[in-house]
């Protein structure tokens, strides 16, 4: 039974990023989720390969790179060279998503595809046999702290059903957007494996370790 908690550093204190990454690592983070935004594909900008390189120096945990940008192929090699373990590319950002996935794999990293709330699963179904991960956006991409879109639970459930019906589809299901103590159980019950949480972890009142433990416990319980 897989449950991985992935703190999103978009919600960390940018002026004390190393401190927050080390704290989340010590508190039990399984993966770190890094958003790269270009201000074109989404109306915001954040992080570059240099941030990935800096994080690689302070944590051994896997680095999950979420590319919210046009022309993602131009950044694949730089982020992998910087230390990325998984590169996630939006199906909506390129006309050649198969080529992009193949490029990630050619550099030795895990490859994943991202689908926005309004993107049907059918548009990426052909990729299922070759991807390691699929990220279902449970908010519209571009900003942290948004509210979970309830209808995405059914989308996650359908994706899990599709995964179970094909012997060669072994990808992990990741969810990103509005994940907290109220929403993680429904996502886990629907079939998600990796849970990206930002505001809930870094901006809450309780300590990071307690918040990570709390949502992990809720997800594990929901999967039983």
TrEMBL record:
Tagged with keyword Hydrolase: no
HAMAP family with a match to the protein in the record: RPE
Active site: 35 (proton acceptor), 176 (proton donor)
One GO cellular component, as annotated: cytoplasm
Functional description taken from the UniProt entry: Catalyzes the reversible epimerization of D-ribulose 5-phosphate to D-xylulose 5-phosphate.
Listed name of the protein: Ribulose-phosphate 3-epimerase
Gene Ontology terms, MF aspect: D-ribulose-phosphate 3-epimerase activity; metal ion binding
Lineage per the UniProt record: Bacteria, Bacillati, Bacillota, Bacilli, Lactobacillales
Positions of a divalent metal cation binding: 33, 35, 66, 176
Cofactor(s) needed for function: Mn(2+); Co(2+); a divalent metal cation; Zn(2+)
Enzyme Commission number: 5.1.3.1
One biological process term in Gene Ontology: pentose catabolic process
Note on cofactor: Binds 1 divalent metal cation per subunit.
Organism of derivation: Companilactobacillus farciminis
Reaction it catalyzes: D-ribulose 5-phosphate = D-xylulose 5-phosphate
Residue sites binding substrate per the record: 8, 66, 142-145, 176-178, 198-199
Pathway: Carbohydrate degradation
Family (UniProt): Belongs to the ribulose-phosphate 3-epimerase family.
Keywords: Carbohydrate metabolism, Cobalt, Isomerase, Manganese, Metal-binding, Zinc
